[in-house]
Amino acid sequence: MDGASATPPPGVRPGYRIGDWRLGGPIGAGSWGSVYAAEHTADGRPAAVKILRTDLLAPGQRAWMDELVRREVRFSLEADHPHLVRTHAALTIEDPDHPGLDGLTALVMDRAEHSLRDLLADAAGRPLPDGPRLLREVADGLAHLHGRGWVHGDLKPANILLAPDGTAWLADFGLAAELEGSHAYVPPLGSLDHVPPEWWSQRTGQRGATVRPTADIWAYGVLAHQVLTGGRHPFPGRTARARALAAQTYAHGGAPLRLDGQLPPGWRELIGDCLLPDHASRARHTAAELSRRVRRLCDAPGVRHRAARRPALLAAGAALLLALAGSAGVLLTSDSRSGPAVAGASSPASASASSSAEGIAGALPEDSDVPRALRPYITRAAERCTEQEVTPALIAAMLKTESGFDPHARRKDEYGIAMWTPWVFHAWAVDGDHDGREDYWSPPDAIASMGSYLCWLAQQFKAGGLRDGLPELVAAGYRTSSRVVLDTGGVPARTRDYVDRVARQLARYSR
Ligand SMILES: Nc1ncnc2c1ncn2[C@@H]1O[C@H](COP(=O)(O)OP(=O)(O)OP(=O)(O)O)[C@@H](O)[C@H]1O
């Protein structure tokens, strides 16, 4: 369980020696100890040394900690694999001059550069550039571990370390336990954000809680969701407890699984399988099978191995927002759908939708430069949305700013009239021209998909209590992500320039 960090043991300074290792500066601290950079006294080999605060434990707990350490070292020696961090030794500090240190246990490990938790903290809501590759390595490490008859039991971003060359290492095997038949026993720890729903209802016996490989599969699903969305947990809630509660509600059938709309195709299904609500249904998906699926997803043509940027979508400035707020008319159609559920849905509306443009909020002026052929699609995309801020004028302003209405536009990894990034597009794709396939080069498809995504953003912000200046927020969210806007509580500074450009365009179309 995530808890407070242990205070560093007193008396440890750079240059302090433990066995053949000389400590450098501190790296960080977890619930059980502090980690220091270190090097070998003979050859300068780098390492990390974790000093465990066994002195703070009651005698019974100390025995338990000894057991964790024993497991960590035994496991590491046995399970040699490129994606598992190596723990070289467990040393007992002998330093009678420093009673605070004397007798503590120190683990000597390969030294990582940082952890996946650090990367996610810096991601600011954007999918990690190397996310699929990292997830492949984690899946490989996990499959190896399960194949050797072990369960990790505490898989989470903080326990995925990144080597200096970027390779992912699974770490912190304190909770890794050998399988006995179909399950293993570990002390009742784990991270609230990554334990499976059944963890909450199981009884902790003398030997600890039961952990099955399916607990790691669940944790992998949460982790993959976080990596591919720049940190978003698959269950809603501001605190880990609230998210854990939401996961239990889902597991008991009280709520559907709502995965983030920006997940790339294939990954959505895989994460859904990892997050099946109970052990039995999850057991169909082994780590070895996951690892093969992840490999296929990573090898698929067109898969991007770095962060996707959403197509730019910009919104109105303050003057315009005032104008919008004052305009009459609310769009509520019988065909209204929004959010992820709209992806793939086709509208029964006929091509005469342009005629309904008259008299609705944000309708396009007759003499604007919006191409006539596109107007029905723009209007229809806005009509599908129940959110009054998503108007034809707003959609047109974004298309104009992004591509100048050029269906052949391309820039880096963004294509077509709405400048969609392919895998983001697939998460929102709508078959706007009803030809049986969704294609970001097709203006009707690209525009309809843009409308559904904008609509979902508007709803997200309203649900998050952000109601003022919604077109502006929606635009900024499209440029970055809903999460970044929600965390900022408004338009992030780095999107301001885009927002202003669209605002000018929007003002022209809102006459
Ligand atoms: N081998 C290592 N190389 C470099 N940094 C490491 C290494 N092991 C751990 N760290 C870093 O040291 C810090 C403390 O790690 P530690 O494993 O003690 O706790 P944690 O995993 O952050 O939290 P907890 O153990 O409470 O779940 C973290 O920032 C972690 O990334």
List keywords for this structure.
binds adenosine-5'-triphosphate, 3 domains, kinase, Protein_kinase_ATP_BS, Prot_kinase_dom, three-stranded antiparallel beta sheet, EC 2.7.11.1, Lysozyme, alpha+beta, Transferase(Phosphotransferase), domain 1, 37% helix, Phosphorylase Kinase, domain 1, 511 residues
Would you identify the CATH architecture of the largest domain? Orthogonal Bundle
Shape by Cα distribution: elongated
Cα-atom radius of gyration: 26 Å
Roughly what is the average pLDDT, rounded to an integer? 78
Bound molecules: adenosine-5'-triphosphate
Q: Roughly what fraction of the amino acids lie in strands? A: 5-15%
Q: What is the third-level CATH name, the topology of the largest domain?
A: Transferase(Phosphotransferase), domain 1
Can you summarize the main beta sheet?
6 strands, antiparallel
CATH superfamily of the largest domain: Transferase(Phosphotransferase) domain 1
What's the structural domain tally?
A: 3
State the end-to-end distance: 56 Å
Helix content: 25-40%
Total strand segments = 15
Widest sheet: strand ordering: 1-2-3-4-6-5
**What is the number of helical segments per DSSP (H or I, 4+ residues)?**
16
